[in-house]
Amino acid sequence: MCIPNNVYDYFFNLFLSENKESLSRLENTEVKDLDSESENFRNLFINYIMSLYQNNDSKIISILDTISSEFSSLEHNNNLLAIRSSSNLEDNSGQAGAGLFDSYLNIELNNKEEVIKHIAKVWASVFNSRAIINRRKLNIETKLAKMSVIIMQMTELDFCYVIHTVNPINGNKNEVYIELAIGLGETLAQSNQKGAPYRLIYNRNDDSLNILNLSSYNYELERKTSNVKIIEYRNEDLTKSEEFINNVGKRLGKIGIMIEENISNEKVGQDIEGNYLFSYNYLQYLAPLSHYLYFLQSLFQFFPIFLQHF
């Protein structure tokens, strides 16, 4: 489900009505002091949202009730959520914005305080130092920054993937570019991870797969804890079995093409993120390259629930 950016606007404007000086101070902070000033401002905003929750603010309660209703069917042994950022400053022409904002994994559905706290932390990540420096470089005003929150069920997985149905390196529309890593997708989604993923090129014309490189990571992020687990990538099927990695790569390439052909009459190139479990694919994110965002969970199913209370 998606908490759209107008909800962020509502709460941030409430907060700003009492804290304009704090925002002004942050925006005028020199880069050398930005980390600490940013942290102070974010904590101020998060504490403001938490005070609304503690005082049973009707709109905060409405958000939590909607989340509980949407995910009420989750099994007790699989009631963990991913609370992810989605900003209008990501996936734009001229800037990808990857890794600027914060997302959180393994949040318990039934712990409402933790759920709203991490929603607030996602909203507050608009003001982390990385995002502020990026806006300054691009001369983007703070008021133009928006933040939606995507809430998903955590899924089991063998590995994660990113698919670009147009090769982002050379712009070749016949090449599907694929990256893979063992474990949770944050390994690929965050820009601060050490190492390189598996990189593959699937050619849609002749059904061939080119393995650009094998992964140089030495760890995976575990689903239930998000802990780093040291592993030997050379022992993984993706590394030791050419047949296996070819089958997986071709399957993902064809999935990317099928999505591209069915999501838009214009066949716009797609940026796709997901998880792979045995032969099942769970799509977590889909964005037409440099266009509007769409979000999916499970196999090709759009999220049906959007908050309508604002």
Overall pLDDT confidence = 83
Strand content: 15-25%
Number of strands: 12
- Count of discrete structural domains: 2
Described by its quaternary structure, the protein is single chain
The largest sheet has its strands arranged as 8-7-6-5-11-12
**Radius of gyration (Å):** 20 Å
Any idea what the CATH architecture of the largest domain is?
A: 2-Layer Sandwich
CATH C-level name of the largest domain? Alpha Beta
What are the segments in which pLDDT stays under 50 over at least 5 consecutive residues?
Answer: 290-310
The residue fraction in helices comes out at 25-40%
User: Per CATH, what is the topology of the largest domain?
Assistant: Dna Ligase, domain 1
Largest sheet: 6 strands, antiparallel
The coarse overall form would be: globular
CATH level-four homologous superfamily name of the largest domain: ATP-grasp fold, A domain
Distance between the termini: 16 Å
Question: What count of helical segments does DSSP give?
Answer: 8
